[in-house]
Specification:
Elements lengths: L19 H15 L4 E4 L1 H12 L7 E4 L5 H20 L1 E6 L4 E6 L1 H6 L12 E6 L7 H8 L5 E6 L9 H18 L5
Parallel strand pairs: 1-2, 2-5, 5-6
Antiparallel strand pairs: 3-4
Helix pairs in contact: 1-2
């Protein structure tokens, strides 16, 4: 399609010190430099794309979210429980799975503390396409249903898949391509 893809490292070399705010600042720097046609993200990246899109709709004219990690801080509490959350706060870090590296890494408690300041369900206004696997055990598809309900600008596609959605790449690519072309036509002068 002739569209350049830029995939910044949202960790910026410091996974332990990761925060939502720091990642949003990086997205903002990159977006203002390259002026993206579409912002895409998966899991935490999908949640970040929605947060950024809600804050800066002109810099992110359309969004594609794959298994977005809505309800981010609440899900940490539900998954870990009170005792583990207290231990994480007291120690300052805890081991967690790093999908990009395929192994365990230490994550700082600052990620959770910072996440509390951000909307669980960002109020996006631009055209938004959401894919979510019905069998997602990491982030319930019900969170994307909740996000999409009542928003005419949001299209939710529930797929027979899991969190990774890797078995649905062809179908998603076809849908993303048509979504891009549909919204590009709508954004043309006189359309």
């Amino acid at each position: 399609m002739g569209v350049e893809v830029v995939q910044p490292d949202l960790n910026e070399g410091d996974f332990t010190g990761l925060t939502i705010t720091r990642q949003l600042k990086l997205i903002d720097r990159v977006a203002r430099e390259i002026r993206p046609q579409m912002l895409m993200g998966s899991s935490l990246g999908g949640y970040l794309a929605a947060l950024y899109g809600a804050l800066y709709p002109k810099e992110a004219p359309r969004l594609v979210l794959m298994a977005p990690a809505f309800g981010f801080p609440r899900r940490w509490t539900e998954r870990l429980g009170e005792e583990a959350m207290l231990a994480w706060r007291e120690k300052g870090t805890m081991p967690t799975y790093h999908y990009g590296e395929g192994g365990m890494r230490e994550i700082g408690h600052g990620l959770y503390q910072d996440a509390l300041w951000h909307d669980e369900f960002p109020a996006v206004t631009q055209p938004t396409l959401v894919f979510h696997g019905r069998y997602d055990e990491q982030v319930s598809a019900e969170l994307s249903v909740q996000f999409a309900t009542g928003k005419s600008n949001v299209t939710l596609e529930l797929l027979d898949s899991d969190h990774g959605l890797t078995d649905r790449l062809e179908a998603m690519w076809t849908r993303v391509s048509s979504f891009y072309l549909e919204t590009e036509t709508q954004n043309q002068p006189g359309a």
